[in-house]
C-alpha cells in the first residue's frame, strides 16, 4: 500500500487483471464528472473491450481450480483481511465514490463503503458453515449434496451504491470458491478501480478477484461470454432483461437480477405518526432518492392524512436545508449523480405538474451542480407516469385511502415488487398487510431498509433471485448430488 494513494488524481486508471494493473487493449475511454460542480474528474477511465474481458476470464479460469480448494479457514482469513482493509481505507474509498456520485460521507458514503466491509465479514463467517446435506440411506445407497462453486462469475453493478453492491456480490461469490470479475458503473468506477492493492494485500491469488471498468458494452461482453458461468446484476429493469436474454442465448449462465422499485408505504390511522413520518422522509431523502427500495408511493389513511402531510412536508423542507456540497461535514443531501439523471428527474417533475399537485419541492437548488429539492406530488391518478414509473430521485406520490382493501389494491398495482412498508400499531393488521403485499421485502413500522443476514430482492419486475444471507451463497453455487453405493465391496 505504501506507494499507492487513494485519490482521484493518483489512482491508476487501468484494469485490474491477474493481480496487476494493466492498460486496456481497447482505446475506448470514458469520462466522469463531479455532480456538485459539473467539473471533469477524469476523461481517461478505460473501457474494457473484448480482448480485456477474454484475458480476465482466462486468468479467472486458470485460478479457479486452486482457489476452490483453498481450505475454508484460509479463504475466510483472506476475506476478513480484505474487509479490514476496506475499513481502514473507508474514508478515501468513500471519497472516490463521492467525487462522482456526490454522496455526503456522514449520511451515505460511510455507510455504503462500510457495507462492503460488513458483507465480506458476514460471508467469511459462512465459509465453513455452508454445508450440504446427507439423506437417510435407501436400499443400500446414501446421497449427499455439495454446494459447488460455478467457476468464473461476474458482478455488474450500478452507480448508486458502487461499493455496497461490490460487497453484496463479490463476497458471497468469493466465499463459495468462485472467481469474480467486477464491472463497476461507468458513472462511479473509481472506488472499484482502487481495490487492486487491497485485493493483493488481502491475499487473493492472481485471477481470483479482478476489476474491469467499462460501460454497458463491457457488461454485455460479460453477460454473453461463453465461459462466464454467472452474472449477478444490479441496475435497471431494461438492462436486466437484456442480461437475462444474453445469458440465455450464450451459455445459459446463472443470473441474479436486482432491479428497480416504486415501493409503497401504507400508513394507517392507528400508527405512531412521528415514526411513520420519519421513516418516509429518510426513505425519500437518503442518497438523494437514488435508492432502489425508496418508499416513493406513500398512502395515508384519511383520519391522519392532513396531519401526516403537514409533518412530511415540514420534515422534507428541513431536510432540504441540508442540501449542499457533499464534501462538507454537515451536508446530508448531495446532488443527483449527473446531468442525465438530473434531466430525467427534472423531466418527471415538470410533466408531473399536469398529473398532480406539488405539496413541496419541485425546484433545482443553486445554479451549478445537480441539486434538487425533495418533491412530493398529491392527487395523482394511478395511471399517471409519475405514479407508475421509477423516477430514481427524491420524488414521491402522497395519496389518501379509506380502507385496507382499497389501499392494498393500489399498493400492488404496479409492475414493481421490491419493498413495501406498513405503519400501524395493530399487529394482526400489520402481518395481514405484510402478507398481502406483492413484494420481496416488507417493513413493519419501518421501510426502505435491509440487513446483510436476511434475503434481499424483489418480486415481479423488481428482480430475480435474492442477495444477502444464505441465499446469496446458494445463488453462487450449484447443488451436486453424490450417490454412494454402500453395499459395494
Ligand atoms: P443501468 O441498468 O443503466 O446500469 C447498471 C449496470 O449495467 C452498469 O454497470 C452498466 O454499465 C451496465 N449495463 C448497461 N447496459 C448494459 C448491457 N446492455 N449489458 C450489460 N451491462 C449493461 O442501471 P443504473 O442506472 O446504473 O442504476 C439505476 C437502476 O438500478 C435503478 O433502476 C435502480 O432501481 C436499480 N437498482 C436496483 C437495486 C436493487 O438491489 N434492486 C439496487 C440499486 C439500484
Automatic annotation (TrEMBL):
PROSITE patterns, per database record: ALDEHYDE_DEHYDR_GLU
Any single Pfam family the record assigns to this protein: Aldedh
InterPro entries: Ald_DH/histidinol_DH (IPR016161), Ald_DH_C (IPR016163), Ald_DH_CS_GLU (IPR029510), Ald_DH_N (IPR016162), Aldehyde_DH_dom (IPR015590)
EC number(s) on file: 1.2.1.3
Annotated keywords: Oxidoreductase
Reactions listed under catalytic activity: an aldehyde + NAD(+) + H2O = a carboxylate + NADH + 2 H(+)
Active-site residue list: 258
Domain Aldehyde dehydrogenase: 21-482
Family to which this protein belongs: Belongs to the aldehyde dehydrogenase family.
Name of protein: aldehyde dehydrogenase (NAD(+))
Biological source species: Lithohypha guttulata
Amino acid at each position: 500500500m505504501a506507494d499507492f494513494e487513494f485519490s482521484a488524481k493518483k489512482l491508476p486508471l487501468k484494469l485490474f487483471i491477474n493481480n496487476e494493473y494493466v492498460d486496456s487493449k481497447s482505446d475506448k475511454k470514458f469520462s466522469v464528472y463531479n455532480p456538485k460542480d459539473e467539473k471533469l474528474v477524469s476523461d481517461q477511465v478505460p473501457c474494457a473491450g473484448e480482448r480485456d474481458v477474454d484475458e480476465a476470464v482466462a486468468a479467472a479460469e486458470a485460478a479457479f481450480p486452486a482457489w476452490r480448494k483453498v481450505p475454508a479457514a484460509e479463504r475466510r482469513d483472506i476475506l476478513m483481511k480484505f474487509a479490514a482493509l476496506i475499513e481502514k481505507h473507508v474514508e478515501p474509498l468513500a471519497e472516490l465514490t463521492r467525487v462522482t456520485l456526490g454522496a455526503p460521507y456522514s449520511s451515505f458514503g460511510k455507510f455504503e463503503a462500510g457495507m462492503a466491509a460488513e458483507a465480506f465479514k458476514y460471508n467469511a463467517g459462512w465459509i465453513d458453515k455452508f454445508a450440504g446435506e446427507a439423506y437417510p440411506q435407501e436400499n443400500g445407497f446414501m446421497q449427499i449434496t455439495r454446494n459447488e462453486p460455478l467457476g468464473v462469475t461476474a458482478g455488474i453493478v450500478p452507480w448508486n451504491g458502487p461499493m455496497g453492491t461490490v460487497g453484496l456480490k463479490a463476497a458471497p461469490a468469493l466465499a463459495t470458491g468462485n472467481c469474480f470479475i467486477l464491472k463497476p458503473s461507468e458513472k462511479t468506477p473509481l472506488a472499484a478501480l482502487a481495490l487492486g492493492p487491497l485485493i493483493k494485500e488481502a491475499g487473493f491469488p492472481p485471477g481470483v478477484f479482478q476489476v474491469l471498468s467499462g460501460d454497458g458494452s463491457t457488461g454485455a461482453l460479460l453477460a454473453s461470454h461463453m465461459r462466464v458461468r454467472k452474472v449477478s446484476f444490479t441496475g435497471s429493469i431494461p438492462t436486466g432483461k437484456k442480461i437475462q436474454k444474453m445469458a440465455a442465448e450464450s451459455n445459459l449462465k446463472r443470473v441474479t437480477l436486482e432491479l428497480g422499485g416504486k415501493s409503497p408505504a401504507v400508513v394507517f390511522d392507528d400508527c405512531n405518526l412521528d415514526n411513520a413520518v420519519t421513516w418516509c422522509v429518510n426513505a425519500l431523502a437518503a442518497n438523494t432518492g437514488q435508492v432502489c427500495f425508496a418508499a416513493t408511493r406513500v398512502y395515508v389513511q384519511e383520519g391522519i392524512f392532513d396531519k401526516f402531510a403537514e409533518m412530511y412536508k415540514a420534515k422534507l423542507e428541513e431536510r432540504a436545508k441540508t442540501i449542499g456540497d457533499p464534501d462538507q461535514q454537515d451536508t446530508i443531501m448531495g446532488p443527483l449523480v449527473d446531468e442525465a439523471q438530473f434531466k430525467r428527474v427534472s423531466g418527471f417533475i415538470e410533466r408531473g405538474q399536469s398529473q398532480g399537485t406539488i405539496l413541496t419541492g419541485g425546484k433545482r437548488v443553486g445554479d451549478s451542480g445537480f441539486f434538487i429539492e425533495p418533491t412530493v406530488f398529491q392527487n395523482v391518478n394511478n395511471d399517471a407516469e409519475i405514479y407508475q414509473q421509477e423516477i430514481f430521485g427524491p420524488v414521491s406520490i402522497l395519496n389518501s385511502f379509506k380502507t385496507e382493501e382499497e389501499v392494498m389494491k393500489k399498493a400492488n398495482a404496479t409492475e414493481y415488487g421490491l419493498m413495501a412498508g406498513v405503519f400501524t400499531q395493530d399487529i394482526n393488521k400489520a402481518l395481514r398487510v405484510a402478507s398481502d403485499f406483492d413484494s420481496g421485502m416488507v417493513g413493519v413500522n419501518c421501510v426502505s431498509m435491509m440487513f446483510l443476514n436476511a434475503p434481499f430482492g424483489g418480486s415481479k419486475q423488481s428482480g430475480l433471485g435474492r442477495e444477502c444471507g444464505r441465499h446469496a451463497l446458494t445463488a453462487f453455487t450449484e447443488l451436486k448430488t453424490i450417490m454412494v453405493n454402500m453395499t459395494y465391496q
